[in-house]
Amino acid sequence: MLEDDIKATVSMALKEDLGGALDLSLDVTSQLIDENEENEATVITREAGVFCGKAWVEEVYRQLGNRVELQWFVKDGDKIEPGEQLFHVKGNARVMLTAERTTLNFVQTLSGVATEVSKYVAAMEGTNCRLLDTRKTLPCLRTALKYAVTCGGGKNHRIGLFDMFLIKENHIMACGGIEKAIQRARQNHPELKVEVEVENLDELQQALDAKADIIMLDNFEYDMMIHAVKQTNHQSQLEISGNVNIDTIGRYAQTGVDFISVGALTKNVRALDLSMRFVKK
């Protein structure tokens, strides 16, 4: 999915800038420059973080005709420092200027996610708990953002509605209970993992009795988390979700749960500060 999505999202982003068509002549400002003019530029970061987005940059230039040469100084997942050079571009000046904002938008966004994820992962250091993303992503950028999560050291939860069961409160009510929901899931797709969201220790026991693969502890208080780990006793994997932030995640990770999911990683996205510097003529 990721390779196809990169091509599709880059195409949409370029067409968004160019009035609906992949046509360089629609960039009216770059048309002020001679069509054969060549230049070079370097993209740098203004702040520390984790880099992500190389494939998106390369796809932008590919879709604009491959009239530049790219030199990379970093790879996805690398830690970067303020003032560090990320990549160098040399070639047709019109293409470089048309591509500038699109390439920076992708790299800033994905690097911002990878950077935030790395902070959460660092806060969980020393535990066996793993950080997960969620489906709370920017529309049409899910696979990109989930890739950025892995570059920051996190793990992916389900990609969408097709690759895993996540039985939540409304599913349980509509199915007539936790046990019935899990039974139907096993009947419909025995090859898929089944996760169930629970809101109290009684529902936790119901999910354990029905042999859920993963049980999500939804908005549990800290003492309830501790009790849930003891009650589960490795019969199922446990995931914490809800009211988790950078200040609380380290403590929660020490409870003995297997996963902690954080929607803010891919929902409250802050772009990393980057810039492209052209050579003066």
Topology record:
Elements: H1 2-17, E1 38-45, E2 49-50, H2 54-63, E3 68-72, E4 79-80, E5 85-92, H3 93-123, E6 130-132, H4 142-151, E7 165-167, H5 169-175, H6 178-188, E8 194-198, H7 201-209, E9 214-218, H8 222-232, E10 237-241, H9 249-253, E11 259-261, H10 264-267, E12 274-278
Parallel strand pairs: 6-11, 7-8, 8-9, 9-10, 10-11
Antiparallel strand pairs: 1-5, 1-12, 2-4, 3-5
Helix pairs in contact: 1-2, 2-3, 3-4, 7-8
Order of helices and strands: HEEHEEEHEHEHHEHEHEHEHE
Overall pLDDT confidence:
97
Low-confidence stretches: none
Largest sheet: 6 strands, parallel
How many helices? The count is 10
What is the CA-atom radius of gyration, in angstroms? Answer: 23 Å
Helix content: 40-55%
The global form is elongated
Strand content: 15-25%
Distance between the termini: 42 Å
Structural class: alpha/beta
Count every beta strand, where a strand is a DSSP E run of 2 or more residues. 12
Largest sheet, order of strands side by side? 6-11-10-9-8-7
What does this structure look like?
The mean pLDDT is 97. Helix 1 crosses helix 2, helix 2 (54-63) runs antiparallel to helix 3 (93-123) and helix 7 runs parallel beside helix 8 (222-232). 41% of the residues lie in helices and 19% in strands. By secondary structure, it is α/β, with parallel strands linked by helices. The protein starts with a helix and ends with a strand. Strands 6-11-10-9-8-7 form a six-stranded parallel beta sheet. A four-stranded antiparallel beta sheet has the order 3-5-1-12, covered by helices on one side. A two-stranded antiparallel ribbon has the order 2-4.
